[in-house]
Amino acid sequence: MFRSLRTLYRLSHKRMYESANSIRLLQTQVNRKEIQDDVLKAFASVVGEKNVSTAKAVREHHGKDESYHGIFPPDLVVSPGSTEEVSECAKICYAEGLPIIPFGSGTGLEGGVTGVKGGVTFDLMRMDQIEEVHVEDFDVVVQAGVTRMALNHYLHDTGLWFPVDPGADASLCGMCSTSASGTNAVRYGTMRENVMNLEVVLSDGRVIHTAGEGRRTKKTAAGYNMTNLFVGSEGTLGIITKATIKLYGQPESTISAVCHFPSVKAAVDTTVQTLQCGIPMARIEFLDEVQMMACNKFSHLDYQESPTLFLEFHGSESGVEEQAKAVAEIAEYNEGSGFQWAKEPEVRNKLWKARHDAYYACIALRPGCKASITDVCVPISRLPELITITKEDIQSSSVVGPIVGHVGDGNFHTVLVFDPDNPKEVEEVKGLTDRMAMRALEMHGTCTGEHGIGLGKRHFLEKEIGAVGVQVMKELKAALDPKGIMNPGKIFMD
To answer: Structural domains in the chain?
Structure first.
């Protein structure tokens, strides 16, 4: 059932550059608890035999996400079709002391769905119903397996949409779990600002509604804010099975634009000045010249390969034109040039598809290599300095490292493409990502704006939150998960 420690080590060495942590994680897999036949039958009695799998291919598929982290398969995958089935399966795990790993679309970037201590993965994608749409109240209730693209397709004729867009077609409850955001966050906020209520199955199978069953008010002052306790908890406190989220009116008019700059600082200064002027940007994305080159090659574009801003404006016809004109003046002041405007949906969609495909464009620069994607977020005023320093740091290394980011809210990413069989590059990537995170913390920022802690950034949590803060987090987890079976090995170092 298990691969040898030596085989596992070779596999992980290619995919994880934190070797000390890698060995420890591998040891926990070798020593994990094996699931007995009677327990398998108990799961099958709840979800049906076809929804229980110990097949190697299925387990390995559920033992990884889109990150550089290795494959750590669970011992078992169950696919419940309802909250009741999730609850019953959780009760089995609680009785047997089996780890529980919630799994959605698997698009995470910090190893949050890996089965580092074995256990049972709960694949929630069968729960794909949009239960209620309240057009007049601008909210919707969705099950765990509904993705953001499926929701927006469903909403198309209502005049409403859900704007939080991390790029991937992620499951909405998975987005709640990681507190996802994306290109529209500068205007519409992150998941944390857009979740009104959650249905959560706790480790012992109890079901709670964080704002009260059926509640969907825009605000409440009743008791603790349990909803936001679970938003961003990365599956370590419970299994999110249903979410009530805010919707927005589809904008009357939309204009997108591309503008090129002579330097990174000029592009980021334009972003900061635009926000300081109070211009209500819908999207303002930064791509450096390396990322633009990658996008041109991968998406068959012909944009100038220089530091670039992708912009989008939402509002009335006259409003977006006024906003666009104001931003154009700010960009020209910072030596921006080559403005290209797009009103037609097909042209705008091509532009934003290229932005969303940035990760794949980076990987294509070095076929056969891996990518370490990391993100940080700082106060807007510190953004030009941090991106400039990060750019210089990458240029002094031997790895390829495009920079792309949601600079409108102080968040940006590096995609460090490296050869996992080259020890020098492995160490360089580790150094680059650690220095980037430490600089962000020194600038009063965060080590992760949207990817989460997962496996890759656990060593930064105490530096950011403080020892007391981490201890309180652990106390909260112990209260909700006394046996420590909810997605163990994530967020905390022990």
So the answer is: 28-123 (3.30.43.10), 130-249 (3.30.465.10), 253-443 (3.40.462.10)
